[in-house]
Specification:
The chain is α+β, with helices and mostly antiparallel strands. Helix content is 36%, strand content 22%. The strands form six sheets. Strands 1, 2, 3, 4, 5, 6, 7, 8 and 9 form a nine-stranded mixed sheet that branches. It has a five-stranded mixed sheet with strand order 10-11-16-13-14, with helices on both faces. Strands 19-20-21-25 form a four-stranded antiparallel sheet. A hairpin with a 2-residue loop joins strand 13 and strand 14.
């Protein structure tokens, strides 16, 4: 056997560096591991400090359970952990108290850990330089633990080339800390970078810890107050799983999915199954390029979830993924349905912002013919030619005004209806209604689009999906795996209106399609379906496509902008909106109405 093929045991320092390559991708990875250690140590205050984004220096200080000298020695050894008290890999209940990540981080940096347990007379400190471990020695430190990491990746220079500028690395650290902070509102978190506080979250008040108030308060501090004001609570149970958290109304959406936070047993994860379930739940309410804001916390039996499928624990695997996906989709849709016609308050805020008085002139205009002027300029701007005449004409009394105003019904009390009573139609597009607390402006096309969409869905559920036979069956080549996945689900797909069967090797033949879809791209539909079945493992994607087409049909069959409505038609539309789920937004996530409170309108005119 040649020397190149000789087997040998790698030195421990090299083994640790290989492990570090899997776990510690950047400073944020190291901070995540160290903060998780602090949480498992029972910390109630965690402070992180960065220099140059964590590349030259990072520290994590906590007030949790400290360690003795012997525990310090053990904590920095490979394969030492507190997560497996019974050596059962399927029963992981904590994030991991010390151990595991520490030797990996220490192998690629200049590492110091100082700790003091409760009741001890002194603290102890241990240094590791690129994997070379020293011995614990006495140090000064309060109860808790402090970990300092200097010159991260100095022992693996190649990794340094992949780090971004300090500001970018700091933002990754902040994101990792925010995710952990969401799951632990009882803990105070602080992040400083170059002596500037990026995160400063106080621990929840003891009076709030018993319910959802503490979690919502923490989410508001991280995701914004508008999320807290426009979110619905989630609480569902199924076969040992529990899902809690908050989901934003569809009208509160973003262009990317970065505001979707998912947790499994307190562990932040980025999981395709969970993200796909959220997308499926909102699919009926949002355009393809818009994403909801959610923070969902799943508690799962430890034997039903594997958290070790990814070195950094950012992905999980469920024994029965169908239960989890179904629960998420069902819980989100139930909560959104319970929200009724409620729309995001940010829509009204934006409308009020547009109404706020402002001037488009670079210099102030005169209020009269006298001397003096505004501001520090002391002079008057000249009035643009024709403006005075236009203003006088605008303010002149209108002859016959009362004759041109439609007589409105007086026997309907606005207070009896959430969306009020129709008073006018503007530009043959917008309905203005009066409520007992203000004014509602409705987009008639968007509102009726949602009403038609919901009616179509109800008919589908009541009568089932009708099928139409193809005059010429269509063969779709999708490869052996795709064809196998589809034929295994052929019976379920037939219930959804799609009839297909195997056709040679790696192909299927489609004989019938859902009638509601009309003419469609069968090749694209079948290929997308095969890909989605591979990812999601069920037939929900076809149902989603049916609902998507329902939305398209609704858009083309609803009341169009530009159509004049009678008072009776306008009021009928308002009453249907009040009785229809999800009527606060159209099928694309746009608001169907804006509500302006009377108090806000009065403030615009200086009455408050």
């Amino acid at each position: 056997m040649s020397a190149l093929r000789t087997l040998r045991r790698l030195p421990s320092t090299l083994v640790n560096r290989i492990a570090a390559g899997e776990v510690v991708e950047r400073p944020a990875s190291a901070v995540k591991e160290l903060v998780e250690n602090a949480l498992d140590a029972g910390a109630r205050r965690i402070a992180v400090t960065l220099k140059e984004g964590g590349r030259t220096f990072l520290s994590v200080v906590d007030d949790g359970v400290g360690m003795s000298p012997d525990e310090l020695r053990l904590a920095v050894e490979r394969h030492c952990t507190s997560k497996l008290p019974d050596d059962d890999l399927t029963d992981i209940r904590t994030l991991g108290f010390r151990g595991e990540a520490l030797p990996s981080i220490a192998s690629v940096s200049r590492f110091t850990i100082t700790s003091r347990p409760a009741g001890a007379d002194t603290a102890w400190s241990l240094e590791i330089d690129g994997g070379a471990k020293g011995e614990p020695r006495p140090a000064a430190h309060p109860q808790g633990t402090r970990v300092e990491v200097r010159e991260l990746f100095f022992a693996t220079p190649a990794r340094l080339k992949f780090l971004k500028e300090p500001r970018t690395e700091s933002s990754h650290v902040a994101d990792a800390m925010r995710r952990l902070a969401m799951a632990h509102p009882e803990v105070a978190f602080r992040l400083e970078s170059e002596e500037r506080a990026l995160i400063d979250l106080a621990a929840a008040k003891p009076s709030l810890l018993s319910g959802d108030a503490a979690r919502l308060e923490r989410l508001a501090a991280i995701m914004g107050r508008e999320f807290a004001e426009n979110a619905v609570a989630i609480d569902a149970n199924r076969e040992g799983f529990r899902l809690t958290g908050f989901a934003g109304l569809p009208t509160l959406n973003r262009p990317t999915g970065q505001h979707q936070y998912l947790f499994v047993n307190g562990r932040p994860v980025r999981d395709k199954l969970l993200a796909g379930a959220v997308r499926g739940a909102y699919q009926d309410f949002l355009a393809r390029d818009r994403h909801p804001m959610v923070a969902l916390f799943l508690e799962a039996p430890t034997e039903m979830v594997d958290v070790n499928v990814h070195p950094a624990k950012t992905e999980v695997r469920f024994r029965d993924a169908g239960i989890v996906r179904g629960m998420i989709v069902g819980a989100l849709r139930t909560a959104l349905s319970a929200a009724g016609h409620r729309a995001s308050t940010t829509v009204s805020d934006a409308a009020l912002g547009a109404f706020r008085p402002h001037t488009g002139f670079a210099t102030p205009l005169p209020m009269g013919g006298g001397g003096g002027g505004y501001g520090n300029g002391g002079g008057y701007a000249s009035v643009p030619r024709g403006l005075a005449e236009a203003a006088m004409q605008f303010m002149a009394p209108l002859d016959g005004l009362s004759a041109r105003v439609e007589e409105q019904p007086t026997n309907i009390a606005p207070g009896n209806y959430p969306l009020g009573v129709a008073r006018a139609q503007l530009h043959e597009t917008y309905i203005v209604a009066q409520t007992d607390q203000g004014v509602v402006i409705v987009d008639q096309h968007a509102a009726h689009e949602r009403l038609v969409h919901e009616r179509l869905k109800t008919q589908l559920e009541a009568e089932g999906v009708k099928r139409q036979a193809l005059l010429l069956p269509e063969v779709v080549e999708i490869g052996e795996d795709g064809a196998r996945r589809l034929t295994q689900r052929a019976a379920e797909l037939a219930d959804m209106g799609l009839v297909l069967e195997p056709f040679g090797l790696g192909a299927v033949v489609v004989r019938e399609t859902p009638a509601v879809l009309g003419e469609l791209d069968i090749q694209g539909l079948v290929r997308d379906l095969a890909d989605e079945l591979s990812e999601m493992g069920d037939h929900l994607s076809l149902k989603e496509k049916v609902e998507e087409v329902c939305g398209t049909l609704a858009c083309h069959t609803s009341v169009r902008a530009g159509r004049r409505l009678t008072v009776e038609e306008m009021n009928a539309l308002l009453r249907q909106m009040e009785a229809t789920p999800h009527s606060g937004q159209c099928n694309h996530g746009r608001p169907t109405y804006v509500e302006l409170k009377l108090a806000d309108i009065e403030r615009l005119f200086g009455r408050r």
